[in-house]
C-alpha cells in the first residue's frame, strides 16, 4: 500500500489552500499533493506546482489555460481548465482525500462528486453544507466517504466528541470572535468601510469569509454547517461570543460536563487534524501558552446589532432551498460591498429582499439547488444595482 495519502487541494491558492500545502510539506512521508485546483491566480498555481509536483493542475478560469499548460507541460504535469474539469478530477485514482478550500457555491459540485467517488473529505468550504447540507448528508449515507471538518469550530466540536456517545450530547456551543464591529454601536455600522470590515481581530482569512465574520453571517453558516455535520437539531446549537478566539468551540453533555478545544487562532491545526484522519500529528509550530492571556471572555451574541446570526434558525426552520438563497444573495452582496458598490448594512437588506423574491422549494434535488443559486444570484444582483443607483 502507498504510505503517502494522495491529496487534491481545491482552492490551493487561497488562505486555507496555502496552509494545506504547508501541512503537506511538513509531513512529506505521509502526504502528497496529487491535484491542485485554483480559480484565477495562475502564477501562484504554477509556482505551487513547481514545488509540489502534482500529477494534475486545474485552473477554473479557462482563459488562463494556455499560460498554465505552457508552464507545466515541460515538467510533465497534466493540466486542465474549467468547472467540469475540476469536478471530474474528484474521481481520479490518484486522489484519496479532497480538501475543499474553494470559496462559495463553487464547492458544492466537486464535493458531491468526491462523495459519490468514495473519497475522504477535509471540508473547509462551509457553503457546501449551507447550500445543500441535507443532500450532502443523504449522499454520505450511501458512500464510504467521511467528512472531517476543517472549519475551526467544527474541528473543535469533532475533537470534543471523540470517544463520546452521540446520545450524551446536550448542546453545541459555537464560539464567535464577534468580528471587527463587536464593540461598535449600531449607529456606527451604517458608515463602516471595506477596510474596517476586513480588519478581523484574530484570524487572517480570505476576503469573503472575513466579511461574513464582520456581519456575523459566518456564525449563522456555522450553525447550519453543525446541524448537518453532527446531526443536531438547531435548538441545541448556540453561538457564544468569545473575543479571544482561543476556545474554538464547546460541547455540553447530558451529565453537565462541558468539553472545549483550545488553541491559538491558526488554521494549521484543524487542517493537520483533518488530513491526519482525526489523529494528532506532532508539530514544532508554536502552540498555545495560556499564561500569555489575561482573560478569556464569553458573552451572549448581540442579535439586534448582528441580526444575520438568526438567519441560521430561520433557514433551518423553513428548510428547502432557503439557505441556498441566503448563500447566493450573500455572495453577490459581499462582492458588491468589497467593490464599494453597496454599504455594509446593504448586505443584510440584499439577502432579505432576495429571500422575498425567490420561490420556495420544499424538497429540492440537486438541479433545484443549481436553479435556485442561478436565480437568487440574478435577483440579488438587481437589488445591489438598485442600491448602488440610490447611493450615487
Ligand atoms: N480562511 C480561513 O481561515 C477559513 C476558511 N474557511 C472556509 O474555507 C473556504 C476557503 O476560504 P479562504 O481560503 O479564506 O478563501 P480564499 O478567498 O483565500 O481562497 C479561495 C480559493 O478558492 C479558489 N476559487 C475561487 N473561486 C473558484 C472557483 N469558481 N473554482 C475553483 N476555485 C475557486 C481561489 O482561487 P484564486 O485565488 O486562484 O482565484 C482560492 O484558491 C471558504 O468556504 C471559507 O468559508 C473556513 C474556516 C476558516
Ligand atoms: C477560522 C475560522 O474557523 C473562521 O470561521 C472564524 O471562526 C471566523 O471568525 P468569527 O468567529 O469572527 O466568525
Ligand atoms: Mn469558523
Automatic annotation (TrEMBL):
Name the EC number(s). 1.1.1.267
Q: Which GO terms describe its molecular function?
A: 1-deoxy-D-xylulose-5-phosphate reductoisomerase activity; isomerase activity; manganese ion binding; NADPH binding
Specify the pathway. Isoprenoid biosynthesis; isopentenyl diphosphate biosynthesis via DXP pathway; isopentenyl diphosphate from 1-deoxy-D-xylulose 5-phosphate: step 1/6
Q: Which SUPFAM superfamilies match?
A: 1-deoxy-D-xylulose-5-phosphate reductoisomerase, C-terminal domain, Glyceraldehyde-3-phosphate dehydrogenase-like, C-terminal domain, NAD(P)-binding Rossmann-fold domains
Question: What are the GO BP annotations of this UniProt entry?
Answer: isopentenyl diphosphate biosynthetic process, methylerythritol 4-phosphate pathway involved in terpenoid biosynthetic process
Please give the cofactor(s) recorded in the UniProt entry for this protein.
Mg(2+); Mn(2+)
Residues the entry annotates as binding 1-deoxy-D-xylulose 5-phosphate: 126, 152-153, 177, 200, 213, 218-219, 222
Keyword Electron transport in the entry? The reply is no
DXP reductoisomerase C-terminal domain residues: 262-378
> Which controlled-vocabulary keywords does the entry list?
Isomerase, Isoprene biosynthesis, Magnesium, Manganese, Metal-binding, NADP, Oxidoreductase
Q: Where is the 1-deoxy-D-xylulose 5-phosphate reductoisomerase C-terminal domain?
A: 147-230
Using the record for this protein, list the coiled-coil segments as residue ranges, or answer none. Answer: none
Q: Which amino acids does the record list as binding NADPH? A: 13-16, 39-41, 125, 127, 206
Listed Pfam families: DXP_redisom_C, DXP_reductoisom, DXPR_C
Name of the protein in question: 1-deoxy-D-xylulose 5-phosphate reductoisomerase
Native source organism of the sequence: Muribaculum intestinale
Which gene is annotated as encoding this protein in its UniProt record?
dxr
Amino acid at each position: 500500500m502507498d504510505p503517502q495519502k494522495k491529496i487534491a487541494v481545491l482552492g490551493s491558492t487561497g488562505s486555507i489552500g496555502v496552509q494545506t500545502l504547508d501541512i503537506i510539506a511538513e509531513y512529506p512521508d505521509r502526504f502528497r499533493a496529487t491535484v491542485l485546483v485554483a480559480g484565477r491566480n495562475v502564477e501562484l498555481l504554477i509556482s505551487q506546482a513547481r514545488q509540489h509536483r502534482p500529477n494534475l493542475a486545474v485552473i477554473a478560469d479557462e482563459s488562463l489555460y494556455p499560460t498554465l499548460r505552457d508552464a507545466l507541460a515541460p515538467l510533465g504535469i497534466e493540466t486542465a481548465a474549467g468547472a467540469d474539469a475540476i469536478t471530474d478530477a474528484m474521481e481520479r485514482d490518484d486522489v484519496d482525500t479532497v480538501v475543499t478550500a474553494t470559496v462559495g457555491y463553487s464547492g458544492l459540485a466537486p464535493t458531491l462528486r468526491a462523495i459519490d467517488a468514495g473519497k475522504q473529505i477535509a471540508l473547509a468550504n462551509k457553503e457546501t453544507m449551507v447550500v445543500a447540507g441535507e443532500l450532502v448528508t443523504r449522499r454520505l449515507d450511501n458512500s464510504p466517504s467521511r467528512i472531517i471538518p476543517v472549519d475551526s469550530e467544527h474541528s473543535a466540536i469533532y475533537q470534543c466528541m471523540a470517544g463520546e456517545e452521540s446520545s450524551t450530547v446536550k448542546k453545541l456551543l459555537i464560539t464567535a470572535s464577534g468580528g471587527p464591529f463587536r464593540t461598535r454601536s449600531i449607529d456606527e455600522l451604517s458608515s463602516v468601510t471595506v477596510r474596517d470590515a476586513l480588519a478581523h481581530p484574530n484570524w487572517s482569512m480570505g476576503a469573503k469569509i472575513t466579511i461574513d465574520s464582520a456581519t456575523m453571517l459566518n456564525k449563522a453558516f456555522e450553525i447550519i454547517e453543525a446541524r448537518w455535520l453532527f446531526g443536531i437539531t438547531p435548538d441545541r446549537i448556540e453561538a457564544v461570543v468569545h473575543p479571544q478566539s482561543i476556545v474554538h468551540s464547546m460541547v455540553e453533555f447530558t451529565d453537565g460536563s462541558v468539553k472545549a478545544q483550545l488553541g491559538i487562532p491558526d488554521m494549521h491545526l484543524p487542517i493537520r487534524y483533518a488530513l491526519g484522519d482525526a489523529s494528532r500529528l506532532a508539530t514544532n509550530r508554536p502552540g498555545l501558552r495560556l499564561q500569555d492571556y489575561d482573560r478569556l471572555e464569553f458573552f451572549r451574541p448581540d442579535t439586534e446589532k448582528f441580526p444575520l446570526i438568526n438567519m441560521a434558525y430561520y433557514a433551518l426552520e423553513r428548510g428547502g432551498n432557503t439557505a441556498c438563497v441566503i448563500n447566493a444573495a450573500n455572495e453577490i452582496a459581499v462582492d458588491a460591498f468589497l467593490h464599494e458598490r453597496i454599504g455594509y448594512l446593504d448586505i443584510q437588506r440584499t439577502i432579505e429582499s432576495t429571500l422575498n423574491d425567490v420561490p420556495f422549494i420544499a424538497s429540492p434535488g440537486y438541479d433545484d439547488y443549481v436553479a435556485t443559486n442561478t436565480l437568487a444570484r440574478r435577483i440579488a444582483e438587481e437589488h445591489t444595482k438598485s442600491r448602488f443607483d440610490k447611493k450615487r
